[in-house]
Amino acid sequence: MPAISLAKAPQPASTNPAQIRNFCIIAHIDHGKSTLADRMLGITEVVDPRNMRAQYLDRMDIERERGITIKSQAVRLPWRSGVDGQEYILNMIDTPGHVDFTYEVSRSLAACEGAVLLVDCAQGIEAQTLANLYLAMENNLTIIPVLNKIDLPNAQPEKFAAELAKLIGCQPEDCLRVSGKTGDGVKELLDEIVKQIPAPKGDPNAPARALIFDSVYDSYRGVVTYVRVIDGHLSPREQIQMFSTGVRHEALEVGVISPEPVASKGLGVGEVGYLITGVKDVRQSRVGDTITTFNNPTKHALAGYKDPKPMVFSGLFPLDGADFPALREALDKLQLNDAALVYEPESSAALGFGFRCGFLGLLHMEIVRERLEREHKLNLISTAPNVVYNVTMDDGKEVRVTNPSEFPDGKVAVVKEPIVKSTILAPSEFIGTIMELCQERRGVLLGMDYISEDRVEIRYDLPLAEIVFDFFDQLKSRTKGYASLDYEEKGDAEGNLVKVDILLQGEAVDAFSAIVHRDKAYAYGVMMTGKLRQLIPRQQFDVPIQAAIGSRIIARESISAIRKDVLAKCYGGDISRKRKLLEKQKEGKKRMKMVGRVEVPQEAFVAALATDADIEKVKAARKL
Amino acid sequence: MALSYYVHIPYCIKRCGYCDFNTYTPSELQDGATLELVSNDYIDAVLAELDTTPREEVPTIFFGGGTPSLLPADDLGRVISAIKVRNGLTPDCEITLEANPDSVTQEKLERYLEVGFNRISFGMQSAKAHVLAVLDRTHNPENVKRSVDMARAAGFESISVDLIYGTPGESIDDWRESVTTALSLDIDHISAYALIVESGTKLAAQIKRGEFSMPNDDLMADMYLLVDEMCESQGLSWYELSNWSKPGHECRHNIAYWENKNWWGLGPGAHSHLAGERFWNVKHPTAYKQKLFSKTSPILGSELLTQTQMNTESIMLGIRMRQGISLEMLTSAAIANLANYSENGFLEITQNHVVLTSKGRLIADRIVREITI
User: Fold this and answer.
1) Confidence of residue A458 (pLDDT cuts 50, 70, 90)
2) What rounded mean pLDDT belongs to chain B?
3) How many Cβ atoms sit within 10 Å of the Cβ of residue A401?
4) Edge-to-edge strands of the sheet including B325-326?
5) More confident: A7 or B334
6) pTM for the complete prediction?
7) Closest-CA residue of chain A to B363
8) Contact of A235 with A292, CB cutoff 8 Å
9) Which of A232, A272, A572, A624 is least enclosed by beta carbons within 10 angstroms?
10) To the nearest whole angstrom, how far is the Cα of A620 from the nearest Cα of chain B?
11) What angle do CA B344, B345, B349 make, to 5 degrees?
12) Would the CA dihedral through B326, B330, B333, B337 be positive or negative?
């Protein structure tokens, strides 16, 4: 019986580093990481079978529903090795699997000595997993290749073992085969973790140094800081100090997650756990910072992390203008837990008051929005996502544009846009399709390699702006869902970009402006004017809709004046019915936005700017 | 104080495809009774309700439906006599009968006149057989002229026809022909309504299934402008959005509705208005009869209008009429909102009154939204 009861297991603060193994699991979204983690929790008996539930470690509803992990978790698992019969402590550090959260992955990696590379053996490795694998390799982590879902009828373990072997430089037979679902091979995997992953090294007598790899706001306890101790020791009631700021706090509680938080006597070399100081803002407990003690501070900080930089911007506006303060409050709260979220107030002539928000990527944006709506009960309109542009004027003045409406008028010398280096993995039959898509999106081919007989890795430089505009959906649909994508920033590049304005009755509507490549400006203009013609109801006068670059009109449509808006009959019983209808219509009129003299229904903005999901939501709201 | 009466006759031989009125065919009632028995019994209930109403002098009575002309003249006459005895009629009391061109005979018409009717309104709808077919109307278009002539011969002083435009499949030429036909009749009044497809009707289902498609609003607008122009040129002037008449032949009963006078609706589902309070009866004839025969009130619900609601109704109804609304009824913000419409030819402001032009009448609801609170 390899499991050990928690009480008898080596205790935090008194565990010999030689008995500790710190590892993470690198896997793509649906490759079974959470199920494998569940199985590990079960086999090591840290979770009572009666309390077990699927995706145990995913705390947020959104995480469970979407089957993704957003925030890292670190779980202490006691394990008696089936090989040498010795007791060990395995710290499993959960990692997010999506490209938007790569920065969180890199944090987790820095807290580990090894990584389990988990690949669905019916699908093979995905681009994002590959990117994270490379990160782990750069960090000199020991990689244990594992093929998951061997119970599936369409599993191809041989094929994908060969693929992994080629990527890592091991032998195909070195790949473990497990089923997170049935538990097959999981004990063996735990034993291999003990065997292959090196024990942490550190000096127990040196001044304390612990790396903050995550920082989470909890409404009851304040900020919970996740740390990996490198040297020395952290104890409760001790004065700790943030290396970067010198700010001092008392460690009110130190503990480990197993998988519920358990207070401990402290954390020693190589251990992973949490501490609570009573601060309320995650920014005071900055991820990547080094924690030391006030009485015996270290002189050398640990290598930290690069701050995540927002890549995608979108305006978030409350559907009901009165919700603006509530939106601000909700964003403030979310930011406590999500240092990568940035926002500043903005006002739009069309949408009223809202916030321009910066996100790590599209998924990050979706998740933030979903949390605002679900956890904070807000009804939001988001504008189409855009990237940051750096505009240099003829006079040398530079302008940073995070909102197309800020694009400067006047003589523009250079417009620079962010470029990403993207990696696409797909079956080789889709090479042509993928190249066609990348060319359409202004991609520059960097190279292509076969990672196995029939799977290729294609590398392209692409403008980020092209990716934020439905690139991923297109890639998936054109490759029957087989292609996967990863990208990383690669600086700015000059682009032949222009701002297209949309004018209603000659007046530009800020919310509809877009920065697009000159070659695509016409198509955008035609698409947008056409869409608006369908969406804006007829008014008492003709309404021309134009698309323009500067003062040059590139597309036009017209909404002819309304001619009929009257109910013909109005007798006895019709009168109250008609008055009630009128009262209802007056309410509806309040939801109209005036753009100059033109009444534009909120729905038109949503439909013109936003996603299909938005449109569905507005339709649903109207039915209520 | 005066009180007008509306008398609802909730029976039809057959329900027309576009109709969502509170009316029942004998088969829908399923009580196995003959129309005569139903009629007699029904009139007893109406008279019982009449007994609960204020005893004010009566300037107008309007029998609508359903198909009032389905009932024997003597039955309808019992109601008129009862009102006359109980309330008294003004000397010029207008008493209107809605009639189906198929259900009248010379003899019947004379009898209606004898029991007190002096105004008759025929449901003509269209002169085109294919349009009537879509509307699911049973009458033969030829019958309309015959009925109008018989009514005149019988001695009706005021004769009206109802028309419907915008039926699926109806062209502007079809409509012109219908209006021309109507104007060639010996009539004093025309009501013309744009077809409204009410949910739950057979026509709505047919449209949903794609059997018919509704004409666009621009064609509807052209049809309205056409009937307006044709009526005016034949000496029938508009006095309400959907009504045109020769001088002195305006329907005074309907004007009472639009001027928010007091009126009582007798019958199932009928609405009433008394000094700022609106109330309405239970909808089904059987329930209505049961209530009255057990001496309980047939009133199902009521609402007391606030001052704001009364103002809104006055504006909403008044702006549909020839004399328009007085600027005094409007806030200064509302008056400011009118400027645009005035500039664009949708309305005229003369002698402190706002009066809609023909193209303004077509967007009356929109204008009302701009000027009510």
Assistant:
1) very high
2) 93
3) 21
4) B325-326, B353-356, B347-350
5) B334
6) 0.66
7) A565
8) no
9) A624
10) 20
11) 110
12) negative
A613 pLDDT above the threshold of 70? no
For A582, the closest of B224, B316, B344 (CB atoms) is B316
Does the pLDDT of residue A413 top 50, yes or no? yes
Which of chain A's residues have a Cβ under 8 Å away from the Cβ of B192? 568
**Range scoring the smallest mean pLDDT among A609-613, B120-124, B332-336:** A609-613
Residue A576 and residue B278: Cβ atoms within 8 Å? yes
DSSP letter string, B90-124:
EEEEEEEEEE-TTS--HHHHHHHHHHT--EEEEEE
Q: Are A585 and B369 a contacting pair at CB < 8 A?
A: yes
Report how many Cβ contacts below 8 Å link chain A to chain B.
Answer: 95
User: For residue range B202-233, what is the model confidence (pLDDT) as tens digits?
Assistant: 999 999 999 999 999 999 999 999 999 999 99
How much is the ipTM here? Answer: 0.90
- Which pLDDT band, with edges at 50, 70 and 90, does A624 fall under? very low
- Touching check for B139 and chain A: CB below 8 Å? no
**Which of A566, A580, A585 to probe by mutation at the B interface, max B CB count within 10 Å?**
A566
Which secondary-structure segment (H or E) carries A128?
A: helix A127-138
pLDDT value, residue A1? 43
Interchain CB distance below 8 Å, A569 and B312: no
Least confident of A204-218, A505-519, A606-620, B314-328: A606-620
Length of chain B, in residues: 373
Q: Which residues of A touch B (CB under 8 A)?
A: 540-541, 562-573, 575-576, 578-579, 582-583, 585-586, 589, 597
Q: Do residue A575 and residue B220 have CB atoms under 8 angstroms apart?
A: no
Distance CA B5, CA A332 (A): 64
Q: How many CB atoms lie within 10 A of CB A517?
A: 18
Whether residue B71 contacts residue B103, with contact meaning beta carbons closer than 8 Å, is answered with no
Q: Phi and psi for B248 in degrees, rounded to 5?
A: 85, -5
CB contact under 8 A, B224 and A564: yes
Q: Does B348 touch chain A (CB under 8 A)?
A: no
Contact list in A for residue B316 (CB cut-off 8 A) is: 578-579, 582
DSSP A567-616: -S---TTHHHHHHHHHHHHHHHHHTEEEETTEEEEHHHHHHHHS-HHHHH
Q: Which of A541, A566, A573 is closest, CB to CB, to B365?
A: A566
CB contact under 8 A, A540 and B242: no
Higher pLDDT, A573 or B281: B281
B361 touches chain A (CB under 8 A): yes
pLDDT over 90 at A48, yes or no: no
In the block, tokens 């549909």 appear at B320
CB contacts under 8 A, B 32-71 vs A, are none
Q: H/E element holding A501?
A: strand A497-504
Predicted pLDDT at B169: 95
Chain B residues with CB-CB distance to A567 below 8 A = 196, 365
Give the residue from chain A lying closest to B340, CA to CA: A540
Question: Taking 50 as the threshold, does the pLDDT of residue B351 lie above it?
Answer: yes
* Other beta carbons less than 10 A from residue B325's beta carbon: 22
Cα angle for residues A509, A511, A512 (degrees, 5° grid): 70
B13 touches chain A (CB under 8 A): no
Give B231→chain A minimum CA distance, Å.
17
Distance CA(A511)–CA(A404), nearest Å, equals: 8
For B:221-240, CB contacts with A below 8 A are: 221, 224
**pLDDT value of position A110:** 83
Does B369 contact A at CB distance below 8 Å?
yes
Amino acid sitting at position A137: M
B62-118: per-residue pLDDT in tens?
999 889 998 889 999 999 999 999 999 999 999 999 999 988 999 999 999 999 999
